[in-house]
């Protein structure tokens, strides 16, 4: 007799599951899953529908290349989309191009950008490029400028650090005006020109570098003498030492995470004075600085303001506590040991109070969630039963209106998971197109993507009214057969 039989399925609330689950009829995910779900959307109620089409908006680049989308929402009525490509930023509003500005990041550097927004300014960091502020002055007028640190009393209140051994001394040739600086061993680099050093109770700005042990400087805050100084520091961020890696706002402070030469360090600005990193006397509202020390180097990859200040590093996830954070009560504790990719930035996203991040292995999606019982964070893998769909994520975002979390994969596919923690719905599917997805951002209630299609990089948006990709629609009056 034939072994053919029919099975009625009433729910796909577990989405597409890995082939490794074949035959596991004892699992709920097997009963509510499917072997293949492609270019469909799983509804929170368990049903399946065809995925939305893609409406064509613009060709960002007429040649194939990398890019990144960043949502910029100034208010509920003023939402923009920034498309970053090699040395350029294109600004879109309501699907229409409004401005183009020059940018300092190459196509290779775009993948490692970090950013955070405050009102009409977007702060952007990269370890090899001085941090920038992208500022909106009107719908069509945008500027890109370097960060301006707070200044007072002849000092710039930026982070400082001692990079060289304590045996190295600095001897100034005077206390005011233009002075010579002599180092007891190799110290100076041509990139130090313009950098600030602090010694003998004052501060100087390097004007010229003659050799590795000799430089000329301008005194900006009077020095106390001309004796060889053992205690001195230089600005933590520079062309010589590298620039900030990650940035966020937390408890009314600007948080900087890591740099090229100080990968495991955190800086928190003075309260309500975002670009003032002067530690002062360690008062409650003054700046905070500390390293993340453990049995391995934990290079900061992202900082995120959630229930606590969350720090995602190359080897672990950390919680920084203090209510409020002050120099006296700040505490940092390791929570889990998953790690994030060191060669790219996949921005963590908040979903119903949990922070979702891509693990370092490149085949998981972790839910960083605080457990009240244990008073600690856990990192459950939301892709455990659908791991074959996660392939080197490069970008991600969450669309709350549809409850879909979307991950752009390195192979150009889009991993889409419908999330409802309260209803225990975690349903994966894969979306593809005639081309390759390169970046994603949810702006103004819609999911926008950069798609590499036909040798060009196109900006498109998912549209429920369309059943085609790269599509346009229109109305002809009178009706016509030819378009």
Task: Note down, in words, how this protein is organized.
With 483 residues, the protein is mostly beta strands. Helix content is 2%, strand content 47%. It is built from 2 helices and 41 strands. A 7-stranded antiparallel beta sheet has the order 16-22-19-20-21-18-17, with no helix packed on it. β14 and β15 (155-156) form a beta hairpin. The longest helix is centred in the N-terminal third of the chain and has 4 residues, at 28-31. It is globular. The mean pLDDT is 93.
Given as residue ranges, the uncertain stretches (5+ residues, pLDDT < 50) are none
Largest sheet: 7 strands, antiparallel
Residue share in helix: under 10%
State the separation between the terminal residues, measured CA to CA: 57 Å
Strand order of the largest sheet: 16-22-19-20-21-18-17
What structural class do helix, strand and pairing data support? mainly beta
What is the overall shape?
A: globular
């Amino acid at each position: 007799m034939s072994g053919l039989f029919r099975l009625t399925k009433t729910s796909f609330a577990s989405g597409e599951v890995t082939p490794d689950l074949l035959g596991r009829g004892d699992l709920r995910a097997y009963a509510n899953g499917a072997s293949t779900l492609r270019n469909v959307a799983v509804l929170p109620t368990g049903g399946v529908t065809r995925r939305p089409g893609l409406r064509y908006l613009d060709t960002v680049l007429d040649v194939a290349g990398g890019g990144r989308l960043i949502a910029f929402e100034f208010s509920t009525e003023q939402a923009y989309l920034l498309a970053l490509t090699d040395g350029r930023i294109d600004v879109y509003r309501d699907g229409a191009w409004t401005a183009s500005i020059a940018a300092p990041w190459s196509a290779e550097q775009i993948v490692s950008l970090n950013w955070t927004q405050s009102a009409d300014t977007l702060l952007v960091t990269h370890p090899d490029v001085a941090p920038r502020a992208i500022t909106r002055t009107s719908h069509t007028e945008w500027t890109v400028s370097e960060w301006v640190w707070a200044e007072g009393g002849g000092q710039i209140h930026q982070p400082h650090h001692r990079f060289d051994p304590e045996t190295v001394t600095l001897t100034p040739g005077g206390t005011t005006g233009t002075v010579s600086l002599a180092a007891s061993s190799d110290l100076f680099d041509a990139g130090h020109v313009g950098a600030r050093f602090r010694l003998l109770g004052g501060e100087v700005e390097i004007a010229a570098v003659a050799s590795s042990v000799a430089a000329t400087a301008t005194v900006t805050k009077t020095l106390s003498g001309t004796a060889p100084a053992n205690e001195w520091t230089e600005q933590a961020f520079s062309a010589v030492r590298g620039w900030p890696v990650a940035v966020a706002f937390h408890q009314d402070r600007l948080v900087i995470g890591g740099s090229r030469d100080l990968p495991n360090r955190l800086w928190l600005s003075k309260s309500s004075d975002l670009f003032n990193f002067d530690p002062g006397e360690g008062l409650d509202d003054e700046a905070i600085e500390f390293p993340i020390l453990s049995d391995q180097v934990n290079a900061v990859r992202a900082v995120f303001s959630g229930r606590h200040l969350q720090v995602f590093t190359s080897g672990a996830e950390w919680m920084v506590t203090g209510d409020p954070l002050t120099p006296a009560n700040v505490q940092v504790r390791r929570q889990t040991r998953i790690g994030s990719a060191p060669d790219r930035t996949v921005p963590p996203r908040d979903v119903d109070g949990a922070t979702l991040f891509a693990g370092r292995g490149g085949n998981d999606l972790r839910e960083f969630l605080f457990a009240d019982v244990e008073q600690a964070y856990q990192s459950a893998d939301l892709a455990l039963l659908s791991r074959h769909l996660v392939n080197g994520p490069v970008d991600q975002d969450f669309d709350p209106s549809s409850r879909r979390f979307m991950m752009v994969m390195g192979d150009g596919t889009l991993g889409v998971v419908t999330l409802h923690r309260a209803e225990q719905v975690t349903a994966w599917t894969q979306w593809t197109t005639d081309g390759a997805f390169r970046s994603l951002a949810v702006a103004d209630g819609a999911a926008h993507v950069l798609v590499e299609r036909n040798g060009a990089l196109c900006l498109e948006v998912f549209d429920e009214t369309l059943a085609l990709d790269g599509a346009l629609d229109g109305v002809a009056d009178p009706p016509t057969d030819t378009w």
